[in-house]
Specification:
Length: 455
């Protein structure tokens, strides 16, 4: 049988008082019977522990002078979740001197040690011998016997599962399912509006919904992953009001125009839509002309430009035209002539600021090393480019090289004070040359900043 250990607690009584039964107080008058602060279950009594998780019986019979103590053990969870239980019975307060003074009270060494139980001397269950009574509120699993865990203890977890841990009944997380539901509903609503014609366009054919829902998502991976565009100087582009953005043109195929549009749409605080002025050839090509209209492009003429600027739109123009986009690779980043300065006249007439813009990286996507002029005349094209990959690799030659792009906006050039000279050719020429020189210097700075063509 395991040895039972009795840890006495007598509220400060001396050793002589503990050994002398006559010196003890009557039941109910001893300080032991006084409730202890923070102990809601009853008075503090001797605590009995054992070293094993089984019921230990002493050698003597209960009720005798050298009475024994019956101790019931429990698991750590049961000990944490309930108060001291009254299942076992203790003998009267006449425990042996060896049990009181001879044994070295050693606390249990592990959480699996025996459960303790308190008894009150002289409060027997209807017997004169002082059989112990159980503490009020004891019992297994009763709410009244539950005790709050002390510091360092882990609270007992109930058997009721947490609803938040339960899987979704359809096997899909709720928020994810809601996102896909909204996407599908939005796509169906978009298709319905397309089929019924319930969408809006302006007088130039610009379709904002189509541009933001179809064209922008299709170009965004190219912008972010393939060309890895870095855009700066957006603080020079106002949130409202008309302005004319003038940029260099290059790349054999005018991809730079679409990247400039997407950069302003995604990164400008006001998400401004850039209305491009395009050449006649763009609108003569099947499918391409329709997409250009829906994306906000219009014919590169002074009346259309003035109408857009007067309406507070952000207008973009590439004065080099085909001379810039189709120049050979050997002349990369050298600006061509800016035409007759029609964009300057439109800005002066509407008093719109001119914002110079430099684009670095487009020259390397299709390095033009030759021009098949005969084929170009056959198809009515200004040039038919020959690159290191096209047409030698077939369809793979159409894939642009992944060069590193930089787009920078310069400080606006105000035209409100120059509006009186809108019809003066010399003033128009001087302002055109000033814009061209500003963009050329910006290109040189960006080329110095770039570490390599592809990085």
């Amino acid at each position: 049988m395991p040895d039972a250990q009795i840890i006495p607690f007598d509220g400060g009584a001396s050793r002589a008082q503990r050994n002398d039964p006559s010196a003890r107080s009557e039941p109910g008058t001893d300080p032991v019977d006084e409730p202890t602060p923070g102990d809601p279950v009853g008075p503090v009594d001797p605590v009995v522990t054992t070293d094993e998780g089984v019921t230990a019986d002493a050698d003597t019979q209960p009720g005798s002078a050298g009475g024994t103590v019956a101790v019931e053990t429990a698991s750590p969870l049961e000990a944490d979740g309930a108060a001291s239980s009254g299942v076992g019975q203790a003998a009267a307060d006449g425990a042996s001197a060896e049990g009181l003074n001879g044994a070295d009270p050693t606390p249990p060494t592990s959480p699996a040690s025996a459960r303790t139980r308190r008894t009150v001397a002289g409060s027997g269950r209807g017997t004169a011998s002082g059989a112990p009574r159980t503490v009020a509120g004891s019992g297994r699993g009763t709410a009244s016997g539950a005790r709050k865990p002390s510091a360092g203890q882990t609270p007992t977890r109930t058997d009721t599962p947490d609803q938040s841990d339960q899987p979704h009944p359809n096997g899909v997380e709720g928020p994810t399912e809601d996102v896909w539901d909204r996407r599908i509903a939005g796509t169906l609503a978009f298709l319905r509006r397309r089929l019924t014609g319930e969408y809006e366009t302006d007088e130039f054919g610009f379709d904002p919904e189509f541009s933001m829902s179809v064209l922008a998502p299709a170009l965004r991976p190219i912008y972010e992953k393939w060309f890895r565009v870095e855009i700066s100087g957006l603080e020079h582009v106002s949130d409202t009001g008309g302005a004319l953005i003038v940029a260099n043109h290059s790349g054999t195929i005018p991809v730079d125009a679409t990247m400039l549009q997407l950069g302003l749409l995604d990164h400008h605080p006001a998400r401004r839509a850039l209305r491009l002025l395009a050449a006649d050839l763009v609108f003569q090509m099947p499918f391409v002309g329709e997409l250009a209209r829906k994306s906000g492009s219009t014919l590169a003429c002074q009346p259309d430009a003035e109408r857009l600027l007067s309406g507070g739109e952000l207008v973009g123009v590439f004065p080099e035209g085909f001379k810039g986009v189709g120049k050979p690779f050997s002349e990369r980043y050298k600006l061509q002539r800016f035409g007759r300065g029609g964009f300057v006249s439109a800005a002066l007439a509407t008093k719109a600021p001119i914002i110079p813009c430099a684009i670095v990286g487009a020259e390397e996507i299709y390095p033009k090393i030759g021009d098949a002029k005969i084929i170009a005349r056959m198809f009515g094209l200004p040039y038919f480019p020959l690159t290191p990959t096209f047409p030698w690799l077939g369809p793979l030659g159409v894939v642009p090289l992944p060069s590193k792009w930089y787009i920078e906006f310069g400080e606006p050039i105000e035209t409100s004070d120059l509006a009186a000279g809108a019809e003066d050719p010399m003033q128009v020429f001087n302002l055109t040359d000033q814009v061209r020189e500003t963009i050329q210097q910006m290109l040189y700075r960006l080329l110095m900043k770039r570490r390599s063509v592809f990085g």
